């Protein structure tokens, strides 16, 4: 038999739903902005993320790149393959470890990354607007996001292990 919720429990549920809607709205807005920028460059948002990860840290292995963009190796492998075929990325064996194949941007890839994330890009302009917030608010927001991620990951792990 279902227990009746108290007013406090209903308020708490409503607040949780409001939080979820708010995060979904921010997520959708970010994706929309990334899609617009990616479309301008004839890329996908995932391809843009891969480019930017490699511009920040060149010579990543496929598994390191997948971890960096928080996607599966098989997904990233397909993205990398298409970007190599387009002349945007290249695969090279590292001289210090011939067993490791490193992925890095070509000149064309560097130019695309600059167009996607450089000072004049839609992404940078939008992010500069976010930086108008007081530093304390940004720090609080980042801390709250970290806590939320930990809570959700912990609950997900707990449920998976049951």
TrEMBL record:
<dbReference type="InterPro" id="IPR000835">
    <property type="entry name" value="HTH_MarR-typ"/>
</dbReference>
<dbReference type="InterPro" id="IPR011991">
    <property type="entry name" value="ArsR-like_HTH"/>
</dbReference>
<protein>
    <submittedName>
        <fullName>MarR family winged helix-turn-helix transcriptional regulator</fullName>
    </submittedName>
</protein>
<dbReference type="InterPro" id="IPR036390">
    <property type="entry name" value="WH_DNA-bd_sf"/>
</dbReference>
<keyword id="KW-0238">DNA-binding</keyword>
<feature type="domain" description="HTH marR-type">
    <location>
        <begin position="16"/>
        <end position="150"/>
    </location>
</feature>
<dbReference type="Pfam" id="PF01047">
    <property type="entry name" value="MarR"/>
</dbReference>
<dbReference type="InterPro" id="IPR039422">
    <property type="entry name" value="MarR/SlyA-like"/>
</dbReference>
<dbReference type="InterPro" id="IPR036388">
    <property type="entry name" value="WH-like_DNA-bd_sf"/>
</dbReference>
């Amino acid at each position: 038999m279902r227990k009746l919720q108290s007013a406090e429990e209903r308020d708490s549920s409503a607040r949780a739903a409001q939080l979820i809607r708010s995060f979904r709205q921010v997520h959708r807005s970010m994706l929309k902005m990334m899609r617009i920028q990616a479309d301008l460059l004839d890329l996908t948002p995932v391809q843009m993320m891969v480019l930017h990860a490699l511009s920040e840290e060149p010579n990543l292995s496929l598994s390191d790149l997948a971890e960096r963009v928080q996607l599966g190796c098989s997904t990233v492998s397909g993205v990398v393959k298409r970007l190599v075929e387009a002349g945007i990325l290249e695969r090279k064996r590292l001289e210090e470890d011939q067993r490791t194949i490193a992925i890095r941007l070509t000149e064309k890839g560097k130019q695309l990354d600059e167009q996607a994330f450089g000072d004049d890009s839609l992404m940078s302009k939008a992010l500069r607007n976010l930086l108008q917030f007081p530093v304390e608010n940004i720090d609080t927001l980042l801390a709250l996001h970290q806590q939320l991620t930990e809570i959700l990951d912990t609950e997900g792990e707990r449920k998976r292990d049951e």
